[in-house]
Specification:
- The protein is of the alpha+beta class.
- The chain has one domain: Beta Barrel (Cyclophilin), CATH 2.40.100.10.
- The chain is about 15% helix and about 35% strand.
- It has four helices and ten strands.
- It has an eight-stranded antiparallel beta barrel.
- It is globular, with a radius of gyration of 16 Å.
């Protein structure tokens, strides 16, 4: 059982993931992603990264990732064939759930190794939301260290890694600052994301993207 202090970072309550919901999940929850490039499965560590896994599962159970895309492929210039791919709701405000405090690798003990799934940070370095990335190759520079919060690793790809490697290799361009040249020119659609373990728990929040298509 995780203490309330463990589930609250920086004095900010976890708005989108009630503590009671975290305790009911299996220790590992698998999620299958079906994309236009193929399917892959991730295993979420709900014990070591309870808040991050619960937030991610809220997006999955609400079907908020369905119809989104992989839109970024960041390839390493030093080690060919490595980097990361990023996907999720991007800036679609119709799909977003309340942000929650960043659960860093210093808190969880997880590391950004090959196949790790981790959360992209939100508007600030202290929060995460509805975008995620998968490491292709080890990425220790994304782990927390003194003076740097890093990113919130919360699981690992257990099947379908070749699909993510194919996404990493697609043509990119555009973007600016840290994303310059990394935006996928033809984003890879995420057709659906479905949990394979435990009980589906939709948040009950409105799903306006189903009513009003984005222009």
């Amino acid at each position: 059982m995780f203490s309330r202090r463990r589930l609250i970072a920086g004095g900010v309550a976890l708005l989108a993931v009630p503590r009671a919901a975290l305790a009911r999940e299996p220790a590992v929850v698998r999620v299958r992603f079906v994309t236009a490039a193929g399917s892959f499965i991730v295993a979420l560590d709900t014990r070591r990264a309870p808040a991050t896994a619960a937030n991610f599962l809220a997006y999955v159970d609400d079907e908020r990732f369905d119809g989104t895309s992989f839109y970024r492929a960041a390839r390493s210039k030093r080690v060919p064939g490595t980097g990361f791919v990023q996907g999720g709701i991007r800036t679609d405000a119709r799909r977003i759930l309340p942000p929650f405090p960043l659960e860093t690798t210093a808190q969880t003990g997880l590391r950004h190794v090959d196949g790790t799934i981790s959360m992209a940070r939100g508007a600030t370095a202290d929060a995460a939301g509805g975008n995620f990335f998968v490491c292709i190759g080890d990425a220790p520079h994304m782990d927390a260290r003194p003076g740097y919060k890093g990113y919130a690793a919360f699981g690992k790809v257990i099947a379908g890694m070749p699909v993510l490697k194919r996404i990493l290799a697609v043509p990119t361009g555009g973007g600016f600052d840290s994303m310059k040249g990394q935006m996928i020119l033809k984003p890879i659609p995420i057709i659906r994301a479905v949990r394979m373990d435990g009980r589906k728990r939709p948040t009950g929040r409105p799903r306006p993207w189903l009513l009003i298509p984005k222009r």
